[in-house]
Amino acid sequence: DSRSIAVVGGDGIGPEVTAQGRRILALIAEKRSLPITLTDGDYGIEAYEKRGRMWPESTRIAMAEADAVLFGAIGGTSYPLPPKLHKTDSLLAVRRSLDVFVNLRPVKTSPALYEASSLKPRVLEGVDLIIVRELLGGIYFGEPRGVETLPGGERRGVNTHIYTSSQIQRVARAAFDIARTRKGRVCSVAKENVMEAGQLWREEVQAIHDARYPDVELSHMLVDHCAMQLVRAPAQFDVLLTDNLFGDILSDSAAMVTGSLGMLPSASLGVVREDGRRGALYEPVHGSAPDIAGKDLANPIGSILSVAMMLRFSLGMPKEADLVERAVSDALESGARTADIAIGRKYISTVEMGDAVASKL
Ligand code: NAI
Ligand code: MG
Question: Over the stretch 101-130, which tens digit does the pLDDT of each residue have?
């Protein structure tokens, strides 16, 4: 039976890097005779200008019907969107409609890229961690929200940080399940010294651990301390479990451990539905990078490694996932560098990096 993948590039460098991810997926499907159908969909500012809808119905349907979505990035400097469309068509709306509540962001160093990182080689040695970020709760979704004018003219911006116990429990279970396939250690990150929702976070994570995962080693860390430890000694971490906002911030910091934001893949996974299917969205961690868009300069490795995660988590093809990851390390070891990781060396374009990975596959 054939598996269907929706491919949605989005804005800025999104389409550029996604084209390379798509091509690697198509190549491995061809080489290993995997039955995969790719459907392309538009999304973002161009779709809005051409069709009056940032997230057109045809793309919405393709994403809903697919076994997995390969996504690029969204966002730009000029977004003349009516606020109503933001509510229905934003990336937050996409995540909610696919019901993807957990975001996995692996961070692994490779000696070939030590010089691209701002950290010292002895700090980079052996870093292999994964950030497990809650994706449908917290301050990104909490109500009330908005900017209001108070009597007297003072203006007030409001966002609300809310977590329910079931939201915490399901992402905690995901983190513990992943830890069992790795080194068996979870560090839960919150800010329970000042936030009540953080206290609940810590209690619920501890309770799930004690009841169902006593074999996993659990520790707790305050988020500010974690931000420090991530650059001081990142190799100490195995699984970092955290909320929506903290996970967003910590993963950009963790990215610099690997040398560039352009290197990092992610998988966002949903609840398993009655028919056994679950929402699955694979995208690089970075955004649309307007500063380098349209120049064939972007690093496509985040998208290519997202394809590897898709092969592993949605398509049940771990061997093929390994092959893609190995092709990326081989390309890096043989000296292929996009501008972001070149450090004064000669660099190649987005498409040429795709060529380099494809030739190793
Ligand atoms: P960004 O991640 O787009 O870029 C940050 C910096 O990293 C820039 O200097 C950029 O050139 C560089 N960079 C990012 N990806 C790269 C790659 N693949 N290769 C080489 N260099 C790369 O974050 P920024 O600039 O804060 O946001 C730009 C837009 O992207 C905003 O509209 C933001 O809302 C949106 N965004 C979208 C995300 C998504 O679609 N998931 C995630 C983050 C931001
Ligand atoms: Mg971010």
Answer: 999 999 999 898 999 998 999 999 999 999
Q: Would you call 248 a catalytic residue per the annotation?
A: yes
Could you report the predicted ipTM of this complex, rounded to two decimals?
A: 0.97
> Alpha helix locations (H) across 294-349?
301-313, 318-333
Token pair, residue 86, equals: 């933001």
Tally the residues of the chain. 361
pLDDT digits (tens, 9 = 90+) for 137-166: 999 999 999 999 999 999 999 999 999 999
Q: Which amino acid is at 226?
A: C
292 annotated ligand-binding residue: yes
CA atoms of 290 and 16, how far apart (whole Å): 12
pTM above 0.90, yes or no: yes
Q: Which of 45, 288, 295 to mutate to test the pocket of ligand 1 (most atoms within 8 A of CB)?
A: 288
Active site residue 252: yes
**The pair of three-digit structure tokens given for residue 148, joined into one six-digit string:** 């209001």
Peptide bond into 144 cis (omega under 30): yes
Q: Based on the residue annotation, tell me whether 224 is a catalytic residue of this protein.
A: yes
**140, 163, 213, 282: the active-site residue:** 140
Domains of the chain, start order: 1-104+264-361 (3.40.718.10), 118-258 (3.40.718.10)
User: Residue 212 CA to chain centroid, in angstroms?
Assistant: 27
28, containing H or E segment: helix 14-31
Q: How far apart are CA 318 and CA 210, in angstroms?
A: 31
